[in-house]
Design brief:
The complex is a heterodimer of chains A (735) and B (536). Chain A has 30 helices and 28 strands. Chain A is α/β, with parallel strands linked by helices. In chain A, strand 1 and strand 2 form a beta hairpin. A three-stranded mixed β-sheet of chain B has the order 9-2-10, with no helix packed on it. In chain B, strand 7 and strand 8 form a beta hairpin. The chains are: A alpha/beta (735), B mainly alpha (536).
């Protein structure tokens, strides 16, 4: 080395660490040391958008992830969670062996011992207390084939009567709303509708934060659309709206009826559509007659002029699309609110055409799969429990005796919790969900977990808030470590595949269910389930003739080649060629009800379970606090890069005037107090939260200490977004 | 019981990779054009041609389009192969503080300034500004001095402990060179980030439009476009979060000890030249002062991420005050040795009179302290104004120099020390220590939360409260001990009179502690503005 090099070096090992090189595969430059030798496409494992990700493989090892460009969902984009899909899988925190609690500690055991413990635990309870003494809690986070096998093994093989999913916490309301209005749980849209509308109405949806890639699609709308956001908070989404309707919390049902009133009044009804394709219009008109602008303004806090502006915009729209998410679903009257949105779409004939629809945006990556195939609220394939024909079809398709199939669906999540509290359910099997963090009124739930005789948690990590209470932990494989299909928000099936080995002895949930069935002694019933793709064959067959018929899908390779296939895709459809990239429902105005017509559904608003009062004058709103955290953070908190992007402290957002009235100062710790408990939080003073409200992130473990357990009576979905609280400065002994 | 073969079968099935067999494309040439598929989406986000003369590339951020999803941060991390938790983009937020209900995310990378502070300050020329304006860091040239983390107002270069160097955004220059968009531009779902060419004359002339470091210092090239008023009743969401800056402990030690030793050297030389003490005392005192310098310089080496390349620091002499500081301290040591050798007529007194070597070493030493002052003044940070830094460093040099000489003479018990010198040194030392506390009197007073002074005050009242207490407490103690020594050592008393040794040494130690605490706050409580941050 000469002196010049010693004094000044513009190359060397540190420089080479950051060298970039062309990846090939149409991807562009990537870090040179991670240039892929192969690239595999698969669907992201977080939310329901269903983005496709290219997993970069180098010599058989997954080394990087980029979003797929050639995919109709995400057009080469992903949110931070998707970009960081591999980091949580590679975390040293992963559970690598089954574990049994002995003397208060979880100790590793073999799969043989774990399976024996499982069987002894649940069978012991069932022998002593009957089949109603056990239940399972499933998830929207695992592929359809796995949730189907769980539902089948538990209910048909082991004799569980009760099982529900965490989808009860996010999508139950939309399911019931659609079933009653359309005759089947059928979100009608395709993402192209975001781009084809000239008026977009978002109700209770912070799309920019909760579904950033759907927000991307809306941003690509070339029609300079009017964007109306109905939300108590001035969210990132509301910031970008052309009209933000800052409705009072839970004022949305009044607001929607008020808009219906105005639309009728201004003659914006599509009478041809209503007459040809709907039932109940006259009752609707009679119902909303009472919702005068004066009354609605008083009930919602929205000025009459703003109500009229909103109605006028909808009336003038050529293609109006209505979208809702958890602000509606997680409500004590969510079903009726969702139906009030559906009513507006029917009323104005905004359904079945590009850029229209009454569109429920889903939460989890496979919530739709859970709705069709989890064997909880309906039998596999969406057949109602007790339907003899459906029962025979399930029995025949799976090759099991019809008598093994129960006649009813068992209890919902909140009812299971109630039965645990009553001491009647004594054993619980929790798969890929974390109720000790996410269940409403969390403290009570945690107490109940400790009261159980037997708690099994099957998850990627043994340190989730729920696993901390477990008697048995079963280590599961995660995203990229197993096969199966997800169904996204727009009904698109996408595939999961194995691009990395699971750590230690972790197994795909599919294999865990097969093992446990074998140990239980009902393994013979599920021998046909030789692989997820074989299971896909049964599920496909069970949809034949249903609105969600997918019998035209050949196999996983077909789904991959088509970049996902939306249901329905029937054998008859397939005979005519390959599916279009984007397809929507109800273009013919025919709905899957007995008479082919959609239903207007109306109801009187109900009071909230816990009104504010002098000692609890503020409404606690909850919701997604960032784009980089997912639900209870079981996975996302393992990524150091995602950790850069979200607060680590507990924060409460409060209007500066409310903060002043309560003696709370900026950035200082305060106490948020509800009748369920108190939480210490730092105060963020911001006028994006309206007066009388505070907001906390659902990803924070503390938030559900405060929430008020109350439920929509039709969907049994928890109402996470309304609890009466107060805030106060810390007492001196608390600092 | 389950047949063990079944468990083994499932474990075996789990370990095969289906995607590799069935769904992976193993053909890298799926697109023979060589143009990335994503180019169809980002083509419009790139300039049609590279910058011409008088122009440069710049990031442009459409704040109206930015929804705050932060995909840019993760894409930068993944597409550039950065460490876990490392990204060259950050996203902060502004919120309305009055009736304007507003939330606005602000994404920032490197601003590729027209007059980059990182580059002009770097002592080893580890930064280059390419003809297209991109400011690149040469990782293998970096010695890890972290000076650029002080000269960049935007906290862009980040020090990496493991490698001992800083790394920063290079605008994905090699992507740009082949027509690909930088990672953040490619990854933004709402097309909020683009690359534009800007005229150098226009760069850094406009205010940011929101609370941020003033652009005049380095003339950042990034263009933030917004249709909203982000200046009135809008503030960074983290405005109340007081996070101390890095305290750089080795630099704290280095600054205090170099100032002590040079101060002591100069005081000794003045006493010697005026005949107040003998040459022997001055020579031995000089050696003690020089030993302190060596300790200080070793401490400064500990500050470097890659001390083995410290010698490279000479090459920035023409523009970097850090280089000049290093060279000046480097010269002071041998000059001081030479001076010690010439005292009392020892060799090479025949050619070099002690007065000359003493003056030369003192001059170089004081220049080195002046270079230290300039190192911080030149960062342009509001908290490090010329008066502030000069006052603090000068008072430290004078106070510690005086008390160190007092201590050295007391311990040395040199009988030839003139009566009266001890008394005057102790009295002067007490006064100087008190004087050095004066700037702290107003540093703790708030000037409003959104000002540099206000943030300094909040840091001193909050997380740095303990350090401030040490600073003040030991300062008062040092002054008290020195004043007591002055009383004990009246004009006639010999300097080694019993209790005066204890008092003098106590005063010195207390003064060193107070100055260390003061310098700690100098770094950690510096309160100049930052880019909008996020909740933590």
């Amino acid at each position: 080395m000469n002196l010049r090099d010693l004094l000044h070096r513009d190359d060397g090992p540190l420089t080479r660490e950051l060298r970039r090189a062309p990846a090939g595969f149409g991807i562009g430059q990537v870090p040179a040391d991670r240039a892929p030798t192969q690239v595999a496409r698969m669907i992201c494992g977080y939310c329901s958008t269903g983005c496709s990700l290219d997993v970069h493989l180098k010599d058989g090892r997954a080394v990087n992830v980029t979003p797929t460009t050639d995919h109709p969902v995400n057009l080469g984009m992903a949110c931070p969670k998707g970009w960081e899909s591999l980091a949580p899988m590679e975390s040293p925190d992963r559970a690598t062996t089954p574990m049994v609690r002995r003397g208060g500690r979880l100790v590793p055991v073999s799969w043989q011992q774990a399976a024996t413990t499982f069987v002894d635990g649940f069978r012991g309870l069932m022998d002593q207390h009957g089949p109603d003494s056990v239940a399972f809690l499933s998830t929207g986070q695992i592929p359809s084939e796995e949730m189907a096998l769980l539902g089948a093994v538990a209910k048909f093989g082991m004799g569980f009567r009760h099982g529900d999913g965490n989808t009860r916490q996010c999508m139950a309301t939309a399911v019931v709303a659609y079933k009653q209005a359309f005759g089947f749980d059928s979100p009608p849209y395709t993402y192209e509708d975001f781009e084809a509308s000239d008026v977009v109405v978002l109700v209770g949806s912070n799309l920019a934060v909760a579904h950033p890639i759907m927000w991307e699609r809306l941003q690509r709308n070339p029609n300079d659309p009017a964007v109306i956001v109905v939300d108590p908070r001035r969210t990132e989404t509301a910031m970008a709206a052309t009209q933000h309707v800052a409705v009072r919390p839970k004022g949305d049902l009044d607001l929607l009826y008020g808009i219906g009133h105005l639309l009728v009044e201004m003659g914006a009804v599509d009478h041809d559509f209503v007459a040809a394709h709907t039932v109940g219009f006259d009752d609707y008109v009679a119902h909303v007659a009472d919702w005068t602008p004066q009354r609605v303004a008083a009930a919602t806090g929205v000025r009459e002029a703003d109500l009229r502006r909103l109605a006028t915009t909808i009336a003038a729209g050529r293609a109006v699309s209505f979208w809702w998410t958890m602000g509606v679903n997680q409500s004590h009257q969510g079903v009726r609110t969702a139906q009030a949105i559906i009513d507006l779409a029917l009323l104005t004939g905004n359904i079945g055409r590009p850029g229209t629809g009454a569109n429920s945006i889903t939460g989890q990556c496979n919530a739709m799969g859970s709705r069709l195939f989890s064997n909880t609220t309906a039998m596999l394939g969406g057949h109602p429990w007790g339907d003899a024909h459906g029962r025979d079809r399930v029995a025949t398709t799976l090759g099991i005796p019809a008598e093994s199939i129960p006649m009813d669906g068992g209890l919902a999540y909140d009812q299971i919790v109630e039965q645990v509290a009553a001491g009647r359910i004594r054993g619980l099997w929790v798969v890929a969900t974390n109720g000790a963090h996410s269940w409403i009124g969390q403290r009570g739930f945690r107490d109940l977990l400790d009261r159980l005789d037997f708690l099994v948690v099957q998850d990627l990590y043994a340190d989730t808030e729920t696993a901390k209470h477990a008697d048995l932990v079963l280590p599961a494989a995660g995203w990229g470590e197993k096969e199966g299909t997800f169904i996204n928000s727009e009904r698109r099936l996408g595939i999961q595949s194995r691009v990395r080995a699971a750590p230690g002895e972790a197994l795909a949930d599919f294999w865990i269910f097969r093992l446990l069935a074998q140990a239980w002694g009902c393994g013979d019933m599920f021998e046909r389930w030789t692989s997820p793709e074989a299971a896909f064959g049964f599920l496909r067959e069970l949809t034949r003739g249903q609105p969600c018929d997918i019998t035209g899908i050949r196999d996983y390779a077909h789904i991959d080649a088509e970049r996902g296939i939306q249901w329905p895709w029937t054998t008859a459809d397939a005979a005519a060629g390959e599916p279009a990239r984007e397809r929507r429902l109800f273009a013919d105005g025919v709905f899957p009800t007995a008479d082919g017509r959609a239903r207007f559904v109306v109801d009187d608003p109900r009071p909230v379970a816990e009104p504010t009062r002098d000692s609890r004058p503020l409404v606690l709103l909850t919701g997604r606090g960032s784009t980089s955290q997912w639900h209870t953070q079981t996975r996302t908190r393992r990524s150091a890069t995602l950790a850069l992007l979200a607060p680590t402290d507990t924060w409460v957002e409060i209007h500066p005037d409310d903060a002043r009235d309560h003696g709370v100062t900026a950035d200082a710790p305060c106490m948020v107090v509800s009748s369920r408990g108190s939480v210490r939080a730092r105060a963020l003073l911001t006028s994006t939260v309206q007066r009388g409200c505070v907001f906390m992130s659902m990803h924070d473990e503390a938030t559900n200490v405060l929430t008020m357990p109350s439920f929509d009576p039709h969907s049994r979905q928890p109402s996470y977004k309304h609890a009466a609280v107060t805030v106060r400065p810390l007492d001196h002994y608390e600092t | 019981m389950i047949p063990t073969t079944l468990i083994d079968d499932f474990l075996a099935a789990q370990s095969t990779l289906t995607a590799v067999d069935r769904f992976a494309s193993a053909d890298p040439t799926t697109d023979s054009s060589g143009v990335p598929a994503q180019a169809r989406w980002y083509r419009d986000l790139m300039p049609a041609s590279p910058p011409g003369p008088g122009q440069q590339y710049a990031f442009r951020v459409d704040l109206d389009a930015c929804s705050g999803c932060k995909a840019c941060v993760t894409a930068c991390h993944s597409l550039n192969g950065l460490d876990e938790g490392e990204s060259w983009r950050t996203v902060g937020a502004l919120v309305g503080t009055g009736d304007n209900a507003l939330v606005q995310s602000v994404t920032t990378g490197c601003h590729h300034c027209a007059d980059p502070g990182c580059l002009s300050g770097c002592p080893v020329d580890a930064y280059v500004k390419d003809d297209n304006g991109i400011v690149r860091h040469l990782d293998d040239q970096c010695i890890g001095c972290s000076y650029c983390t002080l000269t960049c107002p935007y906290e862009v270069p980040r020090f990496d402990d493991a490698r001992g160097i800083v790394r920063k955004c290079d605008m994905c220059h090699d992507r740009l060179a082949v027509g690909e968009a930088p990672a953040c531009v490619q990854a933004c779902p709402t097309e909020a980030i683009s690359i534009v060419t800007v005229d150098l004359d226009d760069v850094g002339t406009d205010d940011w439009g929101f609370a941020a470091p003033p652009p005049e210092a380095t003339r950042p090239a990034t263009v933030f476009a917004s249709s909203r008023d982000l200046a009135t009743d809008v503030a960074p969401v983290d405005r109340h979060t007081v996070t101390p800056r890095h305290a750089h402990p080795p630099l704290v030690v280095m600054l205090v000890l170099t100032q002590l030793s040079i101060g002591a050297f100069v005081v000794l030389e003045v006493l010697r030249a005026s005949g107040a003490i003998s040459g022997t005392s001055a020579g031995l005192g000089s050696v003690a002062a020089l030993a302190t310098t060596v300790v200080a310089l070793l401490a400064s080496l500990a500050h470097l991420g890659r001390p083995q390349y410290a010698f490279r620091a000479v090459i920035g002499l023409r523009h970097s005050w850090l280089s000049r500081e290093i060279v000046a301290f480097g010269m002071f040591a041998p000059l001081g040795v030479l001076h010690a050798a010439t005292i009392d007529g020892r060799w090479p007194a025949s050619v070099l009179p002690a007065g000359l070597t003493g003056a030369a070493a003192s001059g170089v030493g004081l220049l080195a302290v002046a270079a230290s002052v300039m190192v911080y003044v030149r960062t342009g940070r509001e908290g490090w104004g010329a008066t502030e830094v000069t006052t603090r460093f000068a008072l430290t040099t004078a106070a510690l120099g005086t008390l160190a000489v007092l201590g050295v003479l007391a311990v040395g018990a040199w009988t030839d020390a003139a009566a009266g010198a001890g008394h005057r040194l102790a009295a002067l030392g007490a006064g100087l220590v008190l004087a050095s506390l004066v700037p702290d009197l107003w540093a703790g007073r708030s000037g409003g939360e959104a000002t540099t002074r206000g943030r300094t005050a909040a840091l001193r009242r909050g997380p740095l409260h303990g350090v401030v207490q040490v600073r003040v407490g030991f300062g008062l103690l040092a002054a008290l001990l020195a004043a007591s020594a002055a009383v004990v050592l009246d004009d006639a008393a010999p300097i080694d009179a019993g209790p005066s040794v204890v008092l003098a040494l106590g005063a010195l130690v207390a003064a060193v502690v107070t100055e260390l605490a003061g310098r700690w706050c100098f770094f950690a409580a510096e309160g100049s503005p930052r880019m909008p941050g996020a909740l933590s």
